[in-house]
Inverse folding.
């Protein structure tokens, strides 16, 4: 395993001037990113989430060499993003949902061709990658249409392709599914999942849409007020914030006293006692099934995954620590 | 070497794309090209009108002044064609174009210039060149080999100088968003300043523009050297040859300002 992103104590501070009275203006310091540490290994798929203004985009801009950090150490692909910006650009692909890498007045196909020159990529590799994207993202219907006439979903598929044509080792995606319809969202997610399976592209994804994360990322970094408040797997997030998987057991006949199962407290009883809902703490699904099987006939068993959205909403609502 | 060649090819591809987009509608492009001569013609006409009411301006005749006018017209129009659109930097920041070019493996400034090159302004540069040649022909210059060299080098130095002024003043908007008016007063003010003999101006204003910012070396001093006149303001004859040096200093200053500006860049929301 090799480290692709290593950031330590990353910090970005802006001064903004705000109106204070009719003529007076006050300078105020805004800390957008406040000491973020981040280490990402090759091939990882990382979800980077947080509420509006938490510092997600600012972090990505510092990792990609667009913004100069106020403090801290950063290495991406072993390079320092700002001083070695042009070299780094050859090894990374970036999609900022509300920015475009495409030429507005030219057909999509011409933008791709221009990017081949911009990145100095050999024609064969470029063509092979374009062929793959055309297939997976279904581009053929609109390759010859000027970009400004494309729908948002079509354009985003174009942006993704544009970010991948030079075969980057790291892909940074800032809100890649924002504003997309369901079909385009599926296409984009499917494509990224495919990319993740191949295993040599590292992916950093910021999003508002937690379905993106559940579908794509094992590891989740949650940032709030410029600080990392969680870094771990999705399961760890649930454990830490007390959200649990539920087992819903449908019974043939109601039980007078539902059994007490170790490690799986009874959450609720529904349908006149014929549906029991247990929460999984230390017990697994099999133990619940085993515990019930001796007492009654099971008609159906369902496992309900906890909703990551609820967990994160709770996280965001937690008051900001002062400092 | 291969790397440098690849970079050049990349810039050429950007230029081709820009040309293709702008010339997609031939007739409208042709009209644009013609219409764009206007501003530069107007600058020259202004000087002619002034000489309609006076025989001399600051001790210089019309034929002599036209050398400065021609030099300025060519240098400014060409710099404006190549670099002038950098004054749209605040818009590039707002629309995210600056972010987009910073993510690519090429210099940010050349990309911005090439992606927004106003090709229709090519007519102004050509008109400026015509005025320059005509002014040289009409000024009764005693040609020597060194003066021929100066007649070629001075306009090119002027292009570099005005280009640097465009970049340096645009860079101010990295720090102070509403700086457009200030930038215009230096760039367009500088163009008007170099269209006349420096002797026309006086006091701190002359000192600041001519020598502080270096505009005297763009057209006035080279014109003196070509015409074989001593400087009424007392600078030695070699000052007529200072244009390339002054242009390089301006270029170094503009490059440094741009670097600092990009480091200071704050981008906009997501």
């Amino acid at each position: 395993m090799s480290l692709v992103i290593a950031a330590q104590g990353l910090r970005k501070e802006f001064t903004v001037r705000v109106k204070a009275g009719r003529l007076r203006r006050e300078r105020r310091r805004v800390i957008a990113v406040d000491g973020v540490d981040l280490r990402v290994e090759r091939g990882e798929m990382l979800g980077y989430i947080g509420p509006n203004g938490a510092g997600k985009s600012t972090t990505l801009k510092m990792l990609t060499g667009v913004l100069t950090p106020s403090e801290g150490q950063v290495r991406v692909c072993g390079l320092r993003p700002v001083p070695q910006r042009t070299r780094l650009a050859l090894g990374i692909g970036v999609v900022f949902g509300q920015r475009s890498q495409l030429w507005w007045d030219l057909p999509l196909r011409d933008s791709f061709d221009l990017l081949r020159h911009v990145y100095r990529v050999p024609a064969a590799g470029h063509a092979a990658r374009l062929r793959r994207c055309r297939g997976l993202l279904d581009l053929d219907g609109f390759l010859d249409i000027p970009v400004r006439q494309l729908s948002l979903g079509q354009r985003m598929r174009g942006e993704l392709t544009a970010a991948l044509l030079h075969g980057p080792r790291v892909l940074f995606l800032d809100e890649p599914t924002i504003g997309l319809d369901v079909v385009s969202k599926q296409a984009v997610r499917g494509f990224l999942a495919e990319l993740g399976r191949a295993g040599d592209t590292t992916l950093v994804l910021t999003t508002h849409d937690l379905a993106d994360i559940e579908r794509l990322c094992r590891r989740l970094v949650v940032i709030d007020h410029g600080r990392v408040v969680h870094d771990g797997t999705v399961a760890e997030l649930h454990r830490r914030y007390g959200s649990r998987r539920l087992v819903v057991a449908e019974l043939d006949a109601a039980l007078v006293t539902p059994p007490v199962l170790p490690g799986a407290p009874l959450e609720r009883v529904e349908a006149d006692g014929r549906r029991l809902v247990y929460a999984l703490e230390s017990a697994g699904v099999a133990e619940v099934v085993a515990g019930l099987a001796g007492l009654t006939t099971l008609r159906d068993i369902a496992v309900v995954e906890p909703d990551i959205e609820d967990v994160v909403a709770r996280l965001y609502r937690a008051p900001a620590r002062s400092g | 070497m291969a790397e440098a060649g690849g970079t050049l090819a990349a810039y050429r591809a950007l230029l081709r794309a820009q040309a293709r987009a702008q010339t997609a509608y031939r007739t409208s492009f042709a009209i644009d090209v013609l219409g764009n001569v206007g501003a530069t013609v107007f600058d020259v006409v202004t000087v002619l009108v002034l000489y309609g009411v006076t025989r001399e301006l600051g001790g210089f005749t019309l034929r002599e002044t036209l050398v400065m006018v021609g030099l300025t017209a060519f240098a400014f129009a060409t710099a404006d064609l190549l670099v002038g659109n950098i004054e749209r930097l605040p818009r590039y920041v707002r629309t995210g174009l600056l972010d987009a070019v910073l993510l690519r493996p090429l210099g940010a400034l050349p990309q911005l210039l090439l992606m927004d090159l106003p090709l229709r302004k090519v007519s102004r540069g050509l008109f400026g060149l015509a005025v320059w040649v005509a002014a040289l022909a009409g000024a009764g210059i005693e040609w020597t080999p060194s003066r021929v060299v100066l007649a070629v080098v001075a306009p090119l130095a002027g292009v570099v100088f005005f280009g640097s002024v465009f970049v340096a003043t645009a860079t101010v908007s990295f720090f102070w968003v509403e700086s457009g008016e200030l930038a215009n007063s230096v760039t367009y003010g500088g163009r008007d300043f170099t269209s006349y003999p420096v002797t026309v101006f006086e006091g701190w204003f002359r000192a600041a523009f001519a020598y502080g910012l270096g505009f005297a070396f763009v057209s006035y001093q080279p014109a003196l050297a070509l015409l074989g006149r001593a400087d009424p303001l007392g600078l030695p004859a070699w000052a007529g040859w200072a244009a390339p040096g002054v242009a390089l200093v301006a270029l170094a200053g503009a490059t440094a300002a741009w670097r600092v500006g990009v480091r200071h860049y704050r981008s906009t929301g997501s």
Observations:
- The mean pLDDT of chain B is 89.
- Residues 2-264 of chain B form one domain.
